[in-house]
Write a structure and sequence with these properties.
Layout: E1 14-18, H1 25-32, H2 35-38, E2 49-50, E3 53-54, H3 60-66, E4 67-70, H4 83-94, H5 98-111, H6 127-139, E5 145-149, H7 157-174, E6 177-181, H8 185-188, E7 194-199, E8 202-207, H9 209-213, H10 227-235, H11 248-263
Parallel strand pairs: 1-6, 1-7, 4-5, 5-6
Antiparallel strand pairs: 2-3, 7-8
Bound molecules: adenosine-5'-triphosphate and magnesium ion (MG).
The site of magnesium ion has 3 residues, from helix 1.
């Protein structure tokens, strides 16, 4: 059902995948980390290549070293009795030497600011803390590509923002290539290199955030248009605001500038 999809993601990009429920976002992501076809079987056509290697012909273990995957629900990837053991789990499976496991677990705990949770039982933590543990476990494998499938949808707004800040830091400071399904486009639009919009298994837009947010048709395919874009569309016929804003802060600055010009 994914039809005519041709996507190239370059190293270091942060790509937001958007589209209404059922359009095939998760299916696309699962084809990249190899869950499809290694775990989900069925008729498969087309191919996904990572650094030239065909995902269908690469083992799950090899893929796990390159592609990290964070699910919507952290319960899907938290198994162990302590946070520390949980973060070490993937590394133990890869046969990483003990000392290195210790170093990487410490690094991941620090990176996500959860050192104080190391000895806690993951199932007792809050949803936001669980999502950080899940992310730490994935990052400990040092993947060059990180895929997140609606990682904030179970989190309250402020915890969701904290997670988004971590995602930004991973891309900006560590150069991790990121593909993320996130409905709130304005949270990441400033840092995203592209937004890819899907509809019924197809990619219908693929381009820089600003050009996509300027398209009114987004509502027709069930993509939540950010408040700043909606306000901009309401105002732009009467006020010369320039390019569509990526965030409400940007819109406020554009309006302030316009008001200043008018009062001069
Ligand atoms: N390429 C495909 N081939 C066959 N089936 C597909 C394909 N893409 C999606 N589907 C099927 O369509 C359904 C919805 O797909 P998927 O879960 O990927 O959508 P989604 O965009 O992630 O939706 P949501 O926003 O609700 O998470 C699933 O049952 C999936 O198996
Ligand atoms: Mg999905």
């Amino acid at each position: 059902m994914l039809r005519n999809i041709s996507l190239t993601i370059h190293p270091g990009e942060l790509v937001i995948i958007a589209g209404s429920s059922g359009c095939g976002k998760s299916t696309l992501l699962r084809s990249i980390n190899g869950l499809i076809p290694h775990m989900y079987h069925g008729a498969l056509s087309g191919s996904v290549r990572i650094d030239g290697a065909n995902v269908a012909e690469t083992s799950i273990v090899e893929l796990a070293k390159k592609v990290g995957f964070v699910f919507q629900n952290p319960e899907n990837q938290i198994f162990m009795f302590t946070v520390e053991r949980d973060i070490a789990f993937g590394l133990e499976n890869l046969g990483v030497p003990r000392n290195e496991i210790k170093d990487r677990v410490t690094w991941a705990l620090q990176l996500l600011g959860i050192e104080h949770l190391a000895a806690r039982a993951p199932h007792e933590l809050s949803d936001g803390q669980k999502q950080r543990v899940a992310l730490a476990g994935v990052l400990a494998m040092k993947p060059s590509i990180l895929i997140l499938d609606e990682p904030t949808s179970l989190l309250d707004p402020s915890t969701a923002l904290e997670l988004i800040e971590i995602v930004k830091m991973l891309n900006r400071d560590l150069g991790v290539t990121i593909l993320i399904v996130e409905h709130r486009l304005d949270l990441l639009a400033q840092i995203a290199s592209r937004i890819v919009c899907m509809d019924q298994g197809r990619v219908i837009f693929d381009g820089p955030p600003r050009s996509i947010l300027a398209t009114r048709d987004l509502t027709l395919i069930g993509i939540g248009v950010p408040t700043s874009t909606r306000l901009y569309n309401l105002l732009k016929d009467g006020v010369d605001l320039g390019e569509p804003p990526l965030t409400t802060e940007e819109l406020a600055a554009q309006l302030g500038e316009e008001l200043r010009k008018k009062s001069d």
